[in-house]
Amino acid sequence: MSSLSSSSRSLHRLIYCSRSLLKPEGFAEAVEAIIRTSIRNNRRDNVSGLLFCHAGWFLQALEGSSLAVQTALGRIGSDPRHEAVKVLGAGPAETRLFREWDMCARTLSMVDDEVANTLERRGPFDPGLLSAASATRLLSTVRDVRADAALRIVA
């Protein structure tokens, strides 16, 4: 097995941010459409991740093989619903932090706003200023808060 094929199958994580070009009216419906398409593509390509939307920004983690993650990023980069895609970090990962794409993406809700509003106490939300480590911590926090909220709903 060549190192290229081994590398393309090992786990990679990529975190990027971008500015939304979606209009406020119809924003939720447009994001739901993005999520539905992403779930279909990501299941097919064995990519997991988490999408966080706030204040006109998208912040997302993608996890999978290097090839699958780069392919997903290529689709994202050509999507006219956002601009200024900036990769905050990319590289090998030991484990998936955002394994349940459905759980991580389908629950865009007030939970995201709660997390973002807490962040905005420090100033306007601009994920382009985050380091890869800070973005990963933020997305992990969103994942955990969403999971806790889902458990409260079930209980």
Explained architecture:
The protein is an alpha+beta fold and 155 residues long. It has a single domain, classed as Alpha-Beta Plaits. Helices cover 50% and strands 24% of the residues. The protein contains six helices and four strands. It has helices at residues 3-9, 27-45, 66-77, 101-106, 110-120, 132-154, and strands at residues 11-20, 48-54, 57-65, 82-92. Strands 2-3-1-4 form a four-stranded antiparallel beta sheet, with helices on both faces. Strand 2 and strand 3 (57-65) form a beta hairpin. The protein is globular, with a radius of gyration of 15 Å. Residues 1-7 have low confidence and may be disordered.
Q: β content, as a range?
A: 15-25%
What global shape is seen?
Answer: globular
How many helices in DSSP terms? 6
Distance between the termini: 48 Å
Which strand order do you get reading across the main beta sheet? 2-3-1-4
Task: Give average pLDDT, whole number.
Answer: 84
